[in-house]
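Section 3.1 - Work completed
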Amino acid sequence: MAGSLFLAGMAHAQTLSIGVAAPLSGTSALLGQQIESGARLAASAAGAEITVVDDACTAEGGAAAARAFAQAKVQVVVGFLCTEAIEAALPLLKDAAIPVITVGVRTESLTDRRARTGWPVFRLGPRGDDERNAAASILTRLWKDELFAIVDDGTIYGREMAETVRAAAEQAALKPVFVDTFRPEMDNQIALVGRLKKAGATHAFAGGDGADIAIMARDASQLDADIVFAGGEALRVAQDTVPFAAGTLMIALPEWSDVADKKALEAFTAAGIIPEGYALPAYAAVQVAQAASVAGKPMSDALTGQDFATAIGTIRFDEKGDMSENPYRAWRFDGQRFTPVEGQ
């Protein structure tokens, strides 16, 4: 790929020192272990050195981790899952000229404030608003010729998802045939589905939990209402009581193990590591750091505006430090599993 920074020839470069910040104690320890294992595996493959510090998912832990990284003179830090930890660490890491590639913090203001704070932060993962923005852009494109409805469960999450989809539809000169709020966690949604059918909706976006969406589809079938339902990444949770209906759409991140390259997966298998959760993003973050380290410019400059080939695909950061491409995609349930919608 033209313009990409590949990992070839790394053996001749100076050894890269990488800090790994992860919650290795407390309730998030399992996730922290995923970060550590993925980062260690990638560092070993690239010949990089790592310094692992438990940030404890706290402000105190984040600040302590930053001081440890500065003392160890690492060139870049990867990891961080918690807003409190990374926000406490970044002022110290900025002073030490150490950029950070976070794999788990979604807080939008982290990068939105970058011009004001000067924090050298890069986000290898979604922003907090990526899910709803993806739902809006994808569904307005897929449903531009459909009679669609928008409903939500009244929660902050549900309302924000639904309102973003509605606003995008309005921008695209599309008008839903029905908009309403439903009561969640009901045994049935017959009344709601009856109103959807009366309105003529053939498609419906529901801001809410997967269980509620599964129940809506079941009740639509019972009322002979041919309605395709769509929801967010809450649909990733399998429904045991009421299964999802075939054709249900989900806007969600990919399972990284499904899209990772074969070589990386073989490396995880050989090391006896299950590539789940944050393991593959952490692996990719180290690959990005290693490639940026040989670009012949300061690390923070090298991380901006370049394509990086990684185990989970091409990564590029924009001027704010966010991924330049929204990672959310549309998936369709085929009766057994969610598969990618064609044409994305």
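Second construct:
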Amino acid sequence: MDLGLAGRKAIVCAASKGLGRACAFALAREGVALVITGRNEDALEATAAEIRNATGVSVRIAPGDITTPQGRQVALDLMPEPDILINNAGGPPPGDFRDFTDQMWHDALNANMLSPIAMIKAVIDSMIAQNFGRIINITSGSVKSPIPTIGLSNGARAGLTGFIGGLSRQVAKHNVIINNLLPGAFNTDRLRVTEAKGAAAAGITVEEQIARRGASVPTGRVGEPEEFGAMAAFLCSTQAGYIVGQNILLDGGSFNATLG
């Protein structure tokens, strides 16, 4: 299927590794020129080089913290009027809500709600003016099925979800399409970090722990980042113009419900 994206331009946030990297690769394979952001400049440049070598598209890097005004401005200076924006940022730490300080709440809301909104605000009017835009927010499966130990993430991401529910329906008539992608367990560095404690407690390797995690999923495995990237690319396509304000769960069927 031709996704109709050749020649388009995209900003992909937190794209040096994991799901952001997979999204960047998937878009590049469709002929999309990229600006990718990340905190680690060396890792970011290594990813950019891999994408350039594999696809031949233009990839520029915007090193910095996307949760700060300065970090966002670096990306926007390189590409002030993208056709596509993929918002992505790491989640806040887990813990008991009784231990969360006001600063921890502010940091979580800034990273996982306010910063994506700031990026959207910066690019949406140019998308409306050209009658084309695609915005994807990478949130979490916890938006549909809250995880008690990550209350900071549950709260902040739910706030973004509510905001997008309203905004997406305001701008859809301009062919500016906004949706959220909700990952479950994917084979990324972040999953390895989160499963390391369980592996140590069980006296097994991280790989064995991840296999156990996958066995609890109806598919019998955790997801691969490339699968996530492919879905993101489709939601950015010309064919996705009638999918508006949705929260699309990619979790191998872990969330058990008749209706999403």
